[in-house]
Design brief:
Number of helices: 3
Shape: globular
Distance between the termini: 41 Å
Low-confidence stretches: 1-79
Largest sheet: 6 strands, antiparallel
Amino acid sequence: MHRLVEPCAGRLASIGCKRAPRVERTSTMRVRCVGKVLQNNHDHGVGTRQTGSEVLKARQPTLAVYQGQSGSRIGSTRTTATASQGLADLLPFLGTCPPEASAGIAIPDVHPEDERVWVPQTDTVSFRPLCFNVSQGYYVNLLRVRKSGLLSRHRHPGPVHGFVLKGDWKYLEHEWTASQGSYIFEPPGETHTLVVLPGCEEMITLFHVTGALLYCDPEGEVVGYEDVFTKLEKAKEHYEAVGLGKDFVQQFVR
């Protein structure tokens, strides 16, 4: 038997925390709650919620994906016998999360079979949206380039994180080369020129970009820009044109 008991009320008060109800849990996955209703985060992992000495019966854990903003599943719920057996004795979070918190995003098919998910920017450059965070001004996407040579020269007012999934590329301003498995951090204020190396037929890199990309000439004069809002608008236009509908993009917006 596993037993969780409430700590001293005085200690909780000293750090500004509220008293939590006493929870008793047995090895048969029966959870006994004393004092109030417990609600799991987004109701994942808890099937029924009751008060007092009534018993909360927990669901079998699943490998589930979050709901998109539109309420439709981004992917399918997947459960395996091995996963269920391995998680059966674990206790999920039984408290509550802030109601104002955004829904999470979980995408099981980062490399989609449907080519329409890729948003073209040119004949050889496209991106696959993962997250458009319009409240914090960043986006996460896969950038795919199917031609070697110079891609763009740009400046970053904000930080950028990258992880190479396929191919080889570099910045002309640095000696290092980014290959499959490489992680890259690009600090705010840096200007660089991205080149896909000769012989690379396809490059795919995950980029987390905060703020804008300021496209510039060799002297640093800004000639264009790209940010979360221009990417979002381009994705809407593309999904509407290919039959997915402009609202398809809403599952990535937070």
